[in-house]
Amino acid sequence: MAVERETDLYAPVKAFFVRRGYEVRAEVRGCDLVAVRPGEDEPVIVEMKKTFTLPLLLQGVDRQRTGADVWLAVERNRTKKGAHNQRFAELSMLCGRLGLGLLTVTFFKTKEPFVEVWREPGAHPLRSGRGGGANGAGAGAAAPASGGSEALRAAAAALGGGGGYGVAAGGRKRAGAKRLLKEFAGRSGDYNVGGSLRRKLVTAYRERAIQCALALACRGRLAPREVKALTGCANADRMLRDNHYGWFRNPERGVYELSPEGKAGLREFAEVTAAWAAKFEWAAEWRPAAAKPDEPITANRERMRSE
Fold it and tell me: Which residues contact residue 166 at a Cβ distance below 8 angstroms, ignoring those fewer than 6 apart?
């Protein structure tokens, strides 16, 4: 059973890592999936495609710059016999030489998808201190035995001699992992789907903007310091001033209010807004349609009590 979209792979791949004890987020700093096990400071990155391609392989190698364990995940379509991207024994060998993990997802009409591990991530060039393969051989050694497909030979050639993917300094690797972990920790949940294209993503920045918008929705006009006190967002003043999404208005000096676009944004990301409303005592009664279009929730609540 062939999948139609790359995003179809996300749910079974996420479930696989959740069973291994990881917390999972989709679309973190351009990575399809990032998983972090509580108590560990090394993230896992998964890049997904419907079929195994050279761009996927190169993308996986590039992700190793962060120092993370990197997996490639593709569909295993039993109907595509003989295709080069179905030769998983050879692909597994190639991934092993590069320190990449490889797993496949098989879909069925009447059963749950089956996730199969072909190769666990191993020591990769950035860890071994060499520009070649994990065992010190050039990455070109990853080419399969004679008779391998043109795509696999092209992959080996593209990566031969390091292919421009030289050893990154330890500081750069730590910085890459730190940025991933910071973005991961800044999200309250997994609201995206890995492999999404042309969709608005819920990032840590958008979540902070939602917090600020929620404060204005519940309390009406506020000064930046008041928004900061309510939400705990250290850069609330800058977010209000930059107004990246057009959610805020500055009707008078030093005071901000929610714009019509901001009200629409809270409705569009209602799941995220509800999650943050549950964390803030002052937003406990927030509802997407709790207030009149131009009336803060607190004013609306007082009006209903007086009636």
Answer: 131
